[in-house]
Fold this sequence. Notes:
With 218 residues, this protein is α+β, with helices and mostly antiparallel strands. The N and C termini lie far apart (82 Å). The strands form two sheets. It has a four-stranded antiparallel sheet, with helices on one face. A two-stranded antiparallel ribbon has the order 5-6. The protein has helices spanning 48-63, 66-71, 77-90, 96-114, 124-136, 141-160, 208-217, and strands at 5-6, 13-18, 21-31, 37-45, 190-193, 202-205. A hairpin with a 6-residue loop joins strand 1 and strand 2 (13-18). The radius of gyration is 26 Å and the shape is elongated.
Amino acid sequence: xxxxxxxxxxxxxxxxxxxxxxxxxxxxxxxxxxxxxxxxxxxxxxxxxxxxxxxxxxxxxxxxxxxxxxxxxxxxxxxxxxxxxxxxxxxxxxxxxxxxxxxxxxxxxxxxxxxxxxxxxxxxxxxxxxxxxxxxxxxxxxxxxxxxxxxxxxxxxxxxxxxxxxxxxxxxxxxxxxxxxxxxxxxxxxxxxxxxxxxxxxxxxxxxxxxxxxxxxx
Length: 218
């Protein structure tokens, strides 16, 4: 392979010898939406001007999000959930209880259906069918809304970071699901949902200090 020599005053443009003279190429390093280091490399240009035009076009495509969308078109739902999860944990955005809740909803409901699917392959019609199936299975509207909120976190972050061009699942319809029963007076916000046919609880504790206070008072 011919040795590439960087051109002075033309960053990321290289020249290399060929049989009948020399040609030019591009080597340009950048980071994609998932902060992975990538290199754009292209050769065969007749002169450095042609190579520089191609480089500027590529850089412009990056600025407009076209390159990230192309690089990440096969990013799966599970892979991107892990990206979001790691960042949210690293910056302290998700507390342990939040992590446990989202992990449970993702693993139990979303991963079996969408985990291995590319973000770009999920259609609105397909996702609506998934939500409707949860209604038919008898899940409460609050449960389905929480499942949907996890998926929306994934898709909104993917759109915001140019992994996908658009979140096609926004404002999905949740109709016909069971409404939550009114809370009795004096009860704390402790919800234990027995909706899993396999006997797994979905337990969410909110304001645990109220429970402690109530126990002390008795």
